[in-house]
Design a protein that fits this description.
The complex is a heterodimer of chains A (about 300) and B (about 250). Chain A is α/β, with parallel strands linked by helices and about 300 residues long. Chain A contains eight helices and 16 strands. Chain A has two domains: about 160 residues, Rossmann fold (3-Layer(aba) Sandwich), CATH 3.40.50.620; about 120 residues, Rossmann fold, CATH 3.40.50.1220. In chain A, the strands form three sheets. In chain A, strands 5-9-4-1-2-3-10 form a seven-stranded parallel sheet, with helices on both faces. In chain A, strands 13-12-14-15-16 form a five-stranded parallel sheet. Chain A has a three-stranded antiparallel sheet with strand order 6-7-8, with no helix packed on it. In chain A, α3 packs across α4. Chain B has about 250 residues and is of the alpha/beta class. Chain B has a single domain, classed as Rossmann fold (3-Layer(aba) Sandwich), CATH 3.40.50.620. Classes of the chains: A alpha/beta (about 300), B alpha/beta (about 250). The interface between A and B is large, with 82 and 80 residues.
Chain lengths: ~300, ~250
């Protein structure tokens, strides 16, 4: 086997993965379905950039079959894919077509002696699991784990036939209100401890006093539909990294707190002293949010 | 008429996971349950089968404890269940699971839509739907937050990082759905009673010729340590003072 192949629909992430290939001392190949991206991809540490083109501007996932053929023909040892929505589907499709093992959304990885060793979070982030996979194998890797490198690659263009069964018929941007929660410095996050929707104004008032954004648990967004789905934090929602995360009436299930692990200071307000949030907070107040929130708002105003 | 299949997984309830002070993980006291995300897949499969006059089949793979899931799954509106039984102590990964589910789907007739959740409650690896599609030679659509089926064509809205993408694909198809897709109904007493009378088919992985050799090995599990201060303060004034000291406000 020879060569680490990488792909991402985000160019910067593809460059990071190419950097990993180079640091692992392997011949590194970047695959792209976007001819225009080849110029940038040429100079981030890879030896070869493979441009796959064909069809009438199909989505990248349509190239899973062609990529599987390329990997098989080249006897690739690893296929590293950027962990985006498109990347995850494409990676698992390729793994399925080739009957290779795959590690999803790794939080750490190393490769030596034909074995991929990874670390990933399971059970909603409560548990760190280590796995080994013999090459050939696939892994999806989020941004920020690997460093891009420098170099100059040759570009090989191949005309292939993408899968045309799934047709894109429309696309619209997701319009988010307010500042992106993912970038917010301070977040007031609401849980199921609020009795009614109108009462969220208590959290909004506090957020205004703190210059914070309002986030929530999955239940508030999806069961009660009090806030839009793009406001909920947790394993199937957003990950945030504020300086201050103020969890109000929020029990702190593992699926939620996995999304706040990069927070500097976590504060919890909950009337149930046994709520799990008190085990993962820096400062907690056991008390009724209907009393505590107005006091906090007043203190910060 | 199109039959639908809902794939679901019996998982350990993460609320029961104990992490000891040395960070070792104890799953022995964790009760099993149908992965929360899979309840959305079941709901969609039931709804689609109802619309097209087909049957909705629940499909699961696992060893003996999975038996407990069948009645719960059937009470959610499925017409029948197919359980691919894994040998006791078998170590399975996403590769083996997809092989078993693919063998299960192949044993069924007239399947138009196979619904999976985007990920499972334990591993959330998001591999099953694309792998299953690859093994069955079918198209796949993942990250689906809206789905309608008209005249044998699925129209699905996919949630990407910054956009919503609408796709169209002819059946048969494998879809992976997000929790936003629907709100699973809580089964009533009548549905629970009826579940006991619905047909369940049990097949062993061996009799379906499923290759049970995994491709990945779990070498360790450790509790995730979130280093936090865990200080309980008595008053709002104390909290504000602490945050000032931290330089946060």
């Amino acid at each position: 086997m020879t060569g680490i192949f990488v792909y991402s629909d985000q160019v910067s992430l593809a460059c990071e993965l190419a950097g990993f290939g180079k640091s692992a001392g392997a011949e590194t190949h970047v695959v792209t379905t976007d001819e225009a991206a080849a110029t940038e991809l040429k100079s981030c540490g890879a030896d070869v950039v493979h441009v796959l083109r064909g069809g009438d501007n199909p989505p990248p996932e349509a190239f899973a079959g062609a990529i599987a053929e390329l990997l098989k023909g080249a006897a690739a040892e690893l296929f590293l894919v950027g962990a985006t929505v498109r990347g995850r589907e494409l990676a698992a499709s390729v793994a399925g077509l080739l009957d290779w093992g795959m590690a999803s959304d790794v939080s750490g990885l190393s490769y030596s002696g034909g074995t991929l060793a990874i670390e990933r979070l399971v059970y909603g982030g409560a548990v760190v699991q280590r796995e080994t996979l013999p090459a050939p194998a696939v892994a999806t890797v989020p941004a920020g784990l690997c460093e891009p490198a420098n170099g100059s690659a040759t570009v090989e263009i191949a005309d292939v036939v993408p899968d045309s069964r799934v047709q894109v018929v429309g696309t619209e941007p997701i319009v988010r209100q307010g500042t992106s929660l993912a970038e917010a410095e301070r977040i007031v996050s609401v849980g199921m401890g609020f009795n009614q929707r109108e009462d969220l104004s208590l959290a909004e008032d506090l957020a205004a006093a703190l210059g914070a954004e309002v986030g929530c648990s999955r239940g508030v967004a999806e069961e009660r539909e009090w806030l839009p789905a793009d406001r909920y934090i947790g394993i199937s929602g957003l990950s945030v990294k504020p300086q201050l995360y103020l969890a109000v009436g929020l029990s702190g299930q593992v699926q939620h707190v996995v999304g706040i692990r990069e927070t500097k200071v976590v504060v919890a307000v909950n009337k149930d002293e046994k709520a799990p949030i008190f085990k993962v907070c820096d400062y907690g107040i056991v008390g009724d949010l209907y009393t505590v929130l107005p006091q906090l708002t007043q203190a910060f105003n | 008429m199109q039959n639908t299949v809902a794939c679901y997984k019996w998982v350990a309830d993460e609320a029961d996971i104990r992490v000891h002070p040395d960070l070792s993980v104890d799953l022995s006291r964790a009760a099993g349950r149908i992965s929360e995300y899979d309840k959305h897949a079941i709901e969609l499969a039931v709804q689609l089968a109802g619309n097209s006059g087909g049957q909705a089949v629940g499909l699961t793979f696992g060893a003996e404890p999975v038996r407990k899931s069948l009645k719960d799954a059937l009470s959610r509106g499925l017409d029948e269940a197919l359980w691919i039984k894994a040998p006791e102590q078998a170590t399975v990964d996403a590769v083996v699971t997809a092989r078993a589910l693919a063998a299960g789907v192949k044993s069924l007739d007239g399947v138009g839509v196979i619904v999976c959740a985007e990920g499972s409650g334990d591993s959330y690896a998001r591999q099953t739907a694309p792998r299953l599609a690859a093994l069955l030679g079918l198209p796949v659509v993942t990250s689906v937050c809206e789905a309608t089926f008209v005249d044998g064509v699925l129209r699905a809205t996919r949630r990407l990082e910054d956009s919503l993408e609408t796709v169209a694909v002819a059946l048969p198809v494998v879809v992976a759905v997000l929790p936003q897709i629907n709100r699973p109904a809580i089964p009533g007493l009548k549905a629970v009673m009826a579940a006991g009378r619905k047909p369940v088919t049990e097949k062993t992985a061996e009799e379906l010729g499923v290759d049970l050799a995994p491709k990945s090995e779990i070498t360790s599990m450790k509790g995730f340590a979130q280093a936090r201060k865990n200080v309980l303060v008595e008053s709002v004034a104390d909290l504000v003072a602490a945050l000032k000291k931290e330089g946060i406000v």
